[in-house]
Design brief:
The chain has 118 residues and is of the alpha/beta class. The protein is built from two helices and seven strands. It folds into two domains: 51 residues, Signal recognition particle alu RNA binding heterodimer, srp9/1 (2-Layer Sandwich); 59 residues, Signal recognition particle alu RNA binding heterodimer, srp9/1 (2-Layer Sandwich), CATH 3.30.720. The model has no long low-confidence stretch (mean pLDDT 87).
Length: 118
Amino acid sequence: MKIGEVCLLTGDVVRLSDFYRMLLRVDGAGDDPVHQVILEGETALTVYNDGSNWESAGQTMCLAFTVADVDIEYERLRGFGVTVVEKPTDRPWGARNMSLLDPDGNLVYLRSFPERGE
C-alpha cells in the first residue's frame, strides 16, 4: 500500500494553493475554488473545499518537506512574510529543521540533511 494523496482541507482553496505553490516553487496558478492539485506523482498534494467550516476546526496535522538547504529557504520565505514558528535549528538525528504556519494555521516543517548532501 502506498500513500496516494495528501489533501489539505480549507475554506479558501485559491489562497492556500497559491501559498503552497510559492513555498514549493511550483509553477502555475489555479482559480478553481473547490479543488486544486499542487504536486502530482506517486503521492499528490491537493487542496480541497468540501463545504465544511475548516477555519474553526482544530488542526492536528503537519507537513514536512525535504529541501536542499533550510537556511536558504528561511531567507527566501522571510521575504514573503511567512509566519515562522522556529528558525532553522540542528536536530540530533542529523536534520536541520525549521517550522512555519500556512495561511490556515497548519504547521509545516522544512528540513535538510547537510551530512547527506540533501
